[in-house]
Design brief:
Layout lengths: L1 H8 L8 E8 L10 H8 L22 H17 L3 E9 L11 H14 L3 E4 L5 H10 L3 E3 L1 H12 L3 H15 L26 H36 L4 E6 L5 H9 L16 E6 L5 E6 L9 H6 L1 H9 L2 E7 L5 H14 L7 E6 L6 H8 L3 E2 L5 E4 L8 H11 L5 E9 L3 H10 L1 E8 L2 E9 H6 L4 E6 L1
Parallel strand pairs: 1-2, 1-3, 3-4, 5-7, 5-8, 8-9, 9-11
Antiparallel strand pairs: 6-7, 10-11, 12-14, 12-15, 13-14
Length: 474
Amino acid sequence: MAVEETRRALPKHNSPERAILVGVDFPLRPPIKRTGAAGARAALRVEEAMDDTRAPVPVPASTSHSLDAEESLAEFRELVLSAGGEIVAEVIQRRQRPDPATLIGPGKVEEISGIAASTNADLILFDHDLSPTQLRNLEAALPCRVLDRTQLILDIFARHARTREGQLQVELAQLEYMLPRLTGRGKAMSQLGGGIGTRGPGETQLETDRRRIQRRLDHLKLSIENVRRVRRQQRQRREAVPVPTVALVGYTNAGKSTLFNRLTGAHVLSSSRMFATLDPKLRAIELPSRRKVLLSDTVGFIRNLPHTLVTSFRATLEEVQQAEILLHVRDSASTYSDEQKSQVEKVLGELDALTKPRIEVLNKIDLLDTQAREALLARTGSSPKGESAVAFSAKTGEGTEALFAAIDQALHSDPLLDAEFRIPQQEGAVLAAIEAGMVIHSRRYDGNLVYLTVTGPASLVGRFRSYRLREAQV
């Protein structure tokens, strides 16, 4: 028994961990009963152990309600690869309702145990959240470690966190998830009593662990509050010079970091792996109107994003809450783009940012064929709700001008004004500031005076009101 526990606790580090993926499907309505040969075929198990090639076994798509389960499992597969795992088998369990003890039922647990033994798997990953009881029962019944969806996402976040702030937020989320899952049994649960026969062995290891975790949680929350305080101070300094912020939001792996690099000329990490970006990044960009804005790259969202992550990363996601405009980056080449959009809007609702002006950036149009591209272009432009959509390719840069123009049009905090100026030529500093911050439509010289017709932000136009002849708001 001790050897088995040691094998569980010490995964192989020289090679990727071998993982079995378990998807679940709980249909809302019972399937139609089948009889005869059709019923026998439907009752066959659609999952099998891996053969010698260790390639994933394909799961038939003809089973009732299989689309959602297989779609979710395909996304889960990408998560596992992002975590550095090697997939050796895939299993899908379809039940009318979850099993309270093991989620998937005792028969399926026995089957997975056999697959784990035959494939020499290191861990079993469930594409579903497990309750503390289910996790404990599965770990007792299966020969290797068991992780659920939330644990896997937390592990990926821990791998990709580079800054001290990101590491603090990930650790907070991990401990908050771990705290209710600490368990103990028998006498190990007893405490000191107050009478004869009630005096147990004192404080248990379980209680000690809980107390230590709670102390660490308090320390992490204090540290993250300090991070938020520093961010507020930095934001206040930025607000002293009015530069609006535009935040990138979207599903993980939608291409936000690649788009960020394309628009800003930066070289932040852009990867096809999920959650490559955890720490927010700010860069200034100049719009066609010569206005400057700050572009913020943020962490991606995902289906069933753990609430502990939304809470822990609130310090980072404050950039989303404070932004004037949100660029919702969508993967136009994905067959699940609409589902991904609804999941992003769900998280934005938790952040109270759903009412902010949004521009949909339909990214990855370079991956579409001609017919799909034409259909997508027909959807672009402004909608009756005031939202706009822009077709874009972060890889090739196609659509950059249209996106800049859409951002320019959506900014309202510092609106554009048309104005005429009459400026003495000796006012070189004034002329240089107008040249740098406004679009000059015409320039005329009359003796020592320069007459300019310009379009510029109201804040800059107001600085030189003493030189203005007339104005009209665009």
